[in-house]
Structures are given as structure tokens and as C-alpha cells.
Write a structure and sequence with these properties.
Order of helices and strands: HEEHEHEEEEE
CATH class of the largest domain: Alpha Beta
Structural class: alpha+beta
Number of domains: 2
Largest sheet: 5 strands, antiparallel
Shape: globular
Radius of gyration: 17 Å
Strand content: 35-45%
CATH topology of the largest domain: Alpha-Beta Plaits
Helix content: 10-25%
Number of strands: 8
């Protein structure tokens, strides 16, 4: 998926992320020429979201140096590097596969049946299409049409430690 960024920009960022022992989940470019935000999501090879802050800092410094040296981003920009977080960002096929059974929200590039935003349980993912249950109805969404997706963190009693 990798957002709507040029392939050459992803090809510049991905090897740097890999050198630091992480995987590139997605890259988003927000805003315009005057105030761009380049947001990079990285994860561990296990996909557990346990990326230490110093890992994000190291990747950020090296990516920023490369972007500035190659002038790959025109104009001013702010760089953000983070892990997928609690509302896990889903940017790759393996992220969707790992989220099967969870509640997700996603936005499509073009309207499907008159809407672009969907929220429901991810029932299956075959690498080509995501099968969701939305409002008690099955909905098939082609992976290529997904613009943005997140797994919804479901709070449980395990999230609250027993007070002593």
C-alpha cells in the first residue's frame, strides 16, 4: 500500500529502516508544499509494535539526512517516525493478515457503494481483498483500493492491573 508516495521515495527510506533492524509499514505524506508532514511507520520483524523510542530517533535522523542530501522532498517538511501504535496502522498485506478477527477502520481511495469509510470486524484477508463485517453485512474491499487502515484497540479487563 505505502500511501500515495513516489516509489523512489519509498526506495530511499526502506533500506535505511532495514539497516536499523526494522520493517517499513507505511509512509504518509500530508499537506502541501508549504507545510508537508512525512510520517513513517516502522515495526519490528515480529510485527509486535515494540519499537523503542531510540530506534525511531535513529531512523529519523538517518532518513532526514538522506532526504536533505538527495532533495527528495521539495520545500519544507516535518518528519515523523513512529511505531504502528495501539490503533495499529495497517499498511502491508502481512498487517492485514495479522489483524483478521479484529475490528478495523479503513478508508478507500474511491467510494464503494457510495461510501469511503468503513468500520467493522475483519473476517478474512487473502492478499487481494479484505472481507469485513460492517453493520452485520459482509463487505469485500480490494486491498489496492485501501487508502488508509487501522486496527481498533479493544480494551479488556487485562488492560487494568489489579490494584493492591
Amino acid at each position: 500500500m505505502y500511501g500515495d508516495i513516489p516509489e523512489e521515495l519509498r526506495e530511499l527510506i526502506e533500506p535505511i529502516v532495514a539497516e536499523h533492524g526494522f520493517e517499513l509499514v507505511d509512509v504518509e505524506r500530508l499537506g502541501g508544499q508549504g507545510s508537508q508532514v512525512l510520517r513513517i511507520y516502522i515495526d519490528t520483524p515480529d510485527g509486535d509494535g515494540l519499537v523503542p523510542v531510540d530506534g525511531c530517533v535513529a531512523v529519523s535522523r538517518e532518513v532526514e539526512t538522506s532526504l536533505d542530501a538527495t532533495e527528495a522532498v521539495s520545500g519544507r517538511y516535518r518528519l515523523e517516525v513512529s511505531s504502528p501504535g495501539l490503533d495499529r496502522h495497517l499498511g502491508r498485506e502481512k498487517d492485514f493478515s495479522a489483524a483478521v478477527g479484529r475490528e478495523v477502520k479503513l478508508e478507500t481511495r474511491q467510494p464503494l457503494d457510495g461510501r469511503r469509510r468503513f468500520r467493522g470486524r475483519l473476517l478474512a484477508f487473502d492478499g487481494v481483498e479484505a472481507q469485513l463485517e460492517v453493520d452485520s453485512r459482509p463487505v469485500a474491499i480490494p486491498f489496492a483500493d485501501v487508502a488508509k487502515a487501522n486496527a481498533i484497540y479493544e480494551i479488556s479487563s487485562a488492560d487494568f492491573g489489579r490494584g493492591r
